[in-house]
Amino acid sequence: MHEVISINGADFIFSPFQNIETASLGVFLRGGARFEDRKVKGIAHFLEHMLFKGSRSYSHRQIKREIEGRGGSLNAFTAQEITAYYAHFLNKNLPRALNILLDMVFNPLLKEGEVNKERNVILEEIKMYNDLPSSRAGMLLDRLLWKNHPLGEEIIGEVDTVKGINRKDLGNFRKKYYIPSNIVISFSGAYNKDKIVDLLAKKIRKTKQKIHLKYFSPSPCQGLEVECEKKSLEQSHLCLGFQSISYRSEKRVTAQLLNVILGANMSSRLFEELREKKSLCYDVSTEIRKYRDSGAFSIHLGLDKSKITVALGSLLKELDKIKRKEVFSRELSRAKDYFLGQLALGLERPQGRMFYLAESFLTLGKIYNFAQVKEKVAAITPREIKSLAKDIFKFENMRISCVGNIKDKSEELIRKVAKKGASHS
Predict the structure, then answer these.
(1) What is the pLDDT of residues 43-77, one digit of tens each?
(2) What are the angstrom distances between the C-alpha of 377 and each of 5, 248, 291, 385?
(3) How many whole angstroms separate alpha carbon 240 and alpha carbon 229?
(4) Residue 221 and residue 147: Cα distance in Å, rounded?
(5) Which residues pair with 74 in a beta bridge?
(6) How far apart are CA 330 and CA 342, in angstroms?
(7) What is the DSSP annotation of 299-362?
(8) Strand runs (DSSP E) across 196-275, as ranges?
(9) Closest Cα partner for 48 from 159, 127, 156, 199?
(10) Measured over all CA atoms, what is the biggest interatomic distance in the chain, rounded to whole angstroms?
(11) How close are the terminal C-alpha atoms of the chain, in Å?
């Protein structure tokens, strides 16, 4: 399925994909928002933007036209621990796409004028996310989950910190993290391995520079905390969160199945109970996030302000239920099929496989094939689901955020319902 090759200090993951016309290539860097200095918060994301503004061999127009203009797509993302640049393209265009991605990463221009222009773009992006109620509720929840820690701060940065970032700051950050020993390149497609390796070897210069990433673990949540923000909206957004396991935990697959059972699809318990049976909301979903030394299990729903406390009470009952009673074998079997089905669907596309390989290697240091994952999933029992639910859903330490056109006493009412749920769990 794959092979890992060291090329001048960088790790290259090659996964052949036969009889298809497209391929996917990604350049992943160990280093994201949680490693930033507080005074330049948002610099990893700022630098991600700047790499699209021109490199030594390609103007900003050429970067887009030479990939998108030839039927491909080009994008990037900044996360807490990873920054990535990736492209999907026709196989015949691999040399061009590879050259562009590596020139962006290793030889960005970072022109002063472009830095100032892109700063304004990012400031507008900050406004956009603050104006999205679901996004805003998530921001507040993260602050509560990871108080006084980078994981609780916005990846995009804040207005004051983004205004203060200059060209020199961007250059220094790039020189520190954008080095071969800190890079993983992932490829999936129908292309000759030796040719790609040769192309990469010509573009990646071997250096002795290395970096030791420093992880400062967040403090565990202690006590119930609630934060509400009043906005003039037709719909309110409620988020619940619990600190959870890291991606290094042996229970990481169990956590994924717990997520499927509770809120990952329209067959989940929360969707059935809150939307189908009680019509309390249009959307309800759960999410698992995993970092090196922490994680979160969060729940989000959008609903009318008059239904917030009723929905919260129903939600807590469902969480309490999965803590007290083992799931039925047939329900767990469906969750396993869903999880494996989604994984298989991703691995059968070059884009999905490219991301899976990179994420697995970056987080676990190894890559499990589908058969190995299937074996791990098959071994998980209802008892393990119940045990992990008890470990995660500690109501006395939960975090709740709410954004909407709520009443002045809403926070007090939410706290009252939450405390009642905690006393019954």
Answers:
(1) 999 999 999 999 999 999 999 999 999 999 999 99
(2) 29, 16, 21, 12
(3) 15
(4) 9
(5) 87
(6) 18
(7) EEEEE-GGGHHHHHHHHHHHHHHHHHSPPPHHHHHHHHHHHHHHHHHHHTSHHHHHHHHHHHHH
(8) 225-230, 236-243
(9) 156
(10) 66
(11) 46
Sheet containing strand 82-90, edge to edge, reads 3-7, 10-16, 183-189, 22-30, 82-90, 73-78
pLDDT score, position 425 = 66
Residues 6 or more apart from 73 whose CB is under 8 A from it?
Answer: 67, 87, 88, 89
Q: What is the mean pLDDT of residues 257-264?
A: 98
DSSP state, residue 178: -
Which residues does residue 10 pair with via DSSP β-bridges, in sequence order?
A: 7
pLDDT in tens, 164-190: 999 999 999 999 999 999 999 999 999
Q: What is the CA radius of gyration of the chain?
A: 23
Which residues lie below 8 Å from residue 20, measured CB to CB, with a gap of 6+? 91, 189, 190, 350
- The number of beta carbons lying within 10 Å of the beta carbon of residue 354 is 27
Give residue 34's identity as a one-letter amino acid code. R
What are 163's two structure tokens? 């205004």
